[in-house]
Amino acid sequence: xxxxxxxSTLWKMSSxxxxxxxxxxxxxxxxxxxxHAGEAPEPSIAWALWAALLCALAMAVTWVLAELxxxxxxxxxxxxxxxxxxxxxxxxxxxxxxxHLLDPLLYTMxxxxxxxxxxxxxxxxxxxxxxxxxxxxxxxxxxxxPLLAHPHDSVGWQWVGPASWPxxxxxxxxxxxxxxxxxxxxxxxxxxxxxGGAFAVAVGCSLLILAWHMPSDVLGGYLLATLCVSLxxxxxxxxxxxxxxxxxxxxxxxPPRAR
Length: 259
Known about the structure:
The chain is mostly helical. The protein has one domain (46-241): Vanadium-containing Chloroperoxidase, domain 1 (Up-down Bundle), CATH 1.20.144. Helices cover 63% and strands 0% of the residues. It has helices at residues 10-14, 22-30, 46-68, 70-84, 89-100, 104-120, 124-147, 168-183, 189-209, 215-236. Helix 3 packs antiparallel against helix 10, helix 6 (104-120) packs antiparallel against helix 7 (124-147) and helix 8 (168-183) runs antiparallel to helix 9 (189-209). The longest helix has 24 residues, at 124-147. The chain starts with 9 loop residues before the first helix and ends in a 23-residue tail after the last helix.
C-alpha cells in the first residue's frame, strides 16, 4: 500500500494550543494598542490657572506692602525719585511719544491688528479672547484705582495722586504684548516676546521718569495684564493654539482593506 503523501493531522490534534505572552495578554486587557506609540500627550492648560492664581496673590501682596508697610511705602517714593533724575529734554520727549502710543485710538487700532492677525491664522477663539481681554484689563484697572486709592509719600518735588494703583498705561502695554505673543506663530514667538517685553518695560520706565505713577503702580499693572491673559487661556482650553480643523483627539488611521 502506498503511503499517504499528505501530512498527518495527528500532530496538530495533539499539540497544545498557542498561548499569548503575559505582556500580550495585559495589552489585550487594556484594549487595542495604538499604532502611533510616540504620539505626544494632550496639552494641559493647568499652568495658566496657576499663573492666574499667582498673579492675583502677587497683586494683593504688592498693594498691601505699598500701602500698609511704612518702609516699603517710603521705598516706593524713593525709587520714583531716582527715576526722575533721568529726566532730560530728549528723554522726556521720547517718553511722552511712547506713552502717546497708548492713547485710546492708537491702542484700539493696535488691538484690532492683533485680532485680524489671529483671524488670518484661523484662530477665531484667540481673536475673540483678545477682543475681550484688551478692554477688560483696562476696565478693571480703572475700576480698582478709586477703590484702592491711598496717599503716597513725596520725595523731592514729585507727587502722584492717591488713585493710581494699578497703572492703566502699564496694564495696556503688557496686555498688548501678551496678546501679540498669543497670536504669533511658534517660530516668531521669541522675537515677539522680546519686542513686547521691551515695549512694556519702556512704557513702565517712561511712567516713572515723568512721575506719572509709582513703581508699585507699574508692577500692579503688569500683574493685572498677566492675570487677565492667563484667565483667557484657561477659558480657551488646552487646544487654543490649534486651527479649528485640527482640534480634538486625532483618530489613528485605518489600515487599508485587503483586496
